[in-house]
Amino acid sequence: MIKAFAETPSQLVQQLEDYLYEIAPSPWVLIVNYLNGSGSLNGYFDCKDEAQVAIAEIEEFFSTKLRFDFSEIQDRDWKDAYKEHFHPWRHKNFHLIPSWMKEDYTVPADHLSLLLDPGMAFGTGNHETTRMCLEFLIDAPDSSQGNSSLLDLGCGSGILTLAASLIGYGQIVGLDNDEDAVRISRENASINQLAEKVTFRVGDLYKLDTDIGKFDCIVANIQADVLISNALNIANLANLQSTIILSGILANEIEEVIETFNSHAPQNSFELSIKEMGEWASAKYTRFD
Q1: In the chain, what are the domains?
Q2: Any bridge partners for residue 238, and if so which?
Q3: What's the rounded Cα separation, in Å, for the pair 39 and 262?
C-alpha cells in the first residue's frame, strides 16, 4: 500500500473539500488544521502508478501542482485513516458519535444518539450537506406515531436513514448505487440495533425499480446535476402530502435546483425552506397537495 502526502495551502483547502465531496467515495483524505486553515492531503493506493494517475487528475482540476511525498504503509493504516477527521456532532437532543468513541462520550438519558463508523463511504455528518439534512429532519420531523415513511437517496454510510429511524419514522429505505456503501450502512444499522427497522438496497436513481413505492419524506443528499437530471423521478416518489429534502448543492447552484423542482410541483402547493452553510445549500419542500 502506497501513501501519497502533500501539504495544502489554506487557500486551497475549501476547494479541495468541495472537490473530494463531488467524487466521494475516493482514496483521498483531507485533514484540516482549523487553527491556521492549512491542511494535508493524503491518498492511499495499491501502487505508485495508481497514485500518479490520481494526482494528475487533481492537478489538472486545480491547474496547480502540489508537492507529493510517498511512503509504504500497512493496509490497516489506510482503513483507519478516515477516523482522524470524524468527530462527535450534536444538534439539539440528537448526538452523532464515532463508534470507537462510545465509551468516552456521555449522552443525557432523554437524548437520542447514533453510533457511526462510515468506513470509506461518504457520510460522517461532519460535512455541511449532511448536517443540513440532519437539522431539517430533527427540527421538523414528519414522523408522527411511526406511521410516516422515508426514502434516503444516496444513503452513503446510512447516517440519514438511521437518524430517521431514531427520530421516529416507520418504513425507512436507504438506497445507494455503491455496494460498499450499502454494506457499511447495514453494518451501522447493526451497531445501533436498528437492522430490523430499516432497509438498505443497491439501486440506481436513473433506473429505479417500480416496486420501491411512494414516501412521506425523501432525502436526497447527492449533487446538483444529479438532482436536476432526476427531479421528476424524485418528485414522483413523493406522496401527495410529503417532505422533500435536497442537499449536496453548492450555494451558487441552489437557484437552478429550486427552479427545476418548482416546475414539477403544482402552483402554490408547497412551502420552501432553504439552509446555507459555508459554500453549500440545502432545500426542503413541504407539499400540501
Answers
A1: 2-84 (3.30.70), 125-287 (3.40.50.150)
A2: 215
A3: 39
